[in-house]
Amino acid sequence: MKPVWHVLLLPADADWRWVEAARLYVERFRVLWAWDPEQAVALPGDPLLLSLVLPDGRPGHTAAWLRQRRPSILLDVLFAPTPEHLQRILDARAAQGDRLGRGLRVVTTDRLNVRSGPSRSAPIVGRLEPGVEVEVIGRSADGVWWAIRDPGGRGRAWIAAAYTRIVRGIPETLPIWIGAPPRVRARRALPVHRAPDPGSPVVGWLAAGAEREALGRTEEGEWVQVAFPDAAHPGWVRGVDLEVEAGALEGLPVYASSRWLEPPVRPPLIQRPFGADPVAFAAWGLPGHEGIDFAAQPGDPVYAAADGWVLQAGDRLEHPYGTQVRIQHRRPDGVYVTVYGRLMPGSLMVRAGEFVQAGRMLGRVGPEGFVHFMLKKEGARNGPYGDILDPSPHLRLAP
């Protein structure tokens, strides 16, 4: 087998903590270090496998630039907001004995179309019946699609992660496969903005009929990031003014919206806000209430605030939160966990390892008549609260 050059490209400002986090993996698989993309793509010979470490989770223009400079490059994208996060991913890969972290297995929970790409518009190349266990060999940048081996033997194929359940393995260790960027065409002459905001400075114009590579999109799909004039200098245009010439926009990396959480109960009546009752919470070493309590009637439905993977779901009567659900959300700016506490014992409708979509019913409000809702972010340093954040700025609440 032809040897593979393998380079780990760390962030340009990575310090010794990032180096220590990757040391075991680098030594185990004889990986080369790099901080400069120019240096990485200049290595002679093919194939070149490049593990790209991205703390902000936004691979769009970086991946496109690398492909422009070296079209044959094999990209392995790692979303790691902190050195500790990177170490967990790489150590798990080393323990599996696979530099690309294979070993995740899922079982289908519904009849699934197998597609040629990570998009609902991609051609169907096969189907899987409910209860079929398959090996996952990668994932899409937004975490919505699993890459599996094509049943027809043509390489990779894709299935929707929402209709599967994890039976073994760790999703974060998998490589993130980013396909060739879709191409879009301007319907009319368009202003190109520096950021996805109509008030952002205009950096230039796209002529009517001009084609560009699409590199990213906002969560609502209102704005699309395009190469302008090239992948190293991207800009933003409104999605409604574009026609897709090749590929699909839904598989693009997503840029975060500040308000991405739906309230866990309806209507969302706040009984106790974040930071309240500092005297009572001093006994716990906290400056105040570490979440938001939403008032509701016992037995009312409790809903998932965003798409994600269920980490825990159970009746923990000895725990301060009692019956609870914890959901992990992979966001463009990091990894978050929402916690739903004080639910009705025996009412849970989800289980660990399951993918849930925003608005999915998790269980019912407990006898106390409120839901304790908490938001955590991996690697966050929010003073005495540690990795706990105030959910208020992220909730979609009516003014």
UniProtKB/TrEMBL annotation:
Ranges for domain SH3b: 102-168
Keywords of this entry: Signal
Example of a GO MF term: metalloendopeptidase activity
PROSITE patterns: SH3B
InterPro entries: Cell_wall_metabolism_enzyme, CheY-like_superfamily, Dup_hybrid_motif, M23ase_b-sheet_dom, SH3-like_bac-type
Coiled coil: none
SUPFAM superfamilies linked to this entry: CheY-like, Duplicated hybrid motif
Name this protein carries in UniProt: Membrane proteins related to metalloendopeptidases
Native source species: Thermoflexus hugenholtzii JAD2
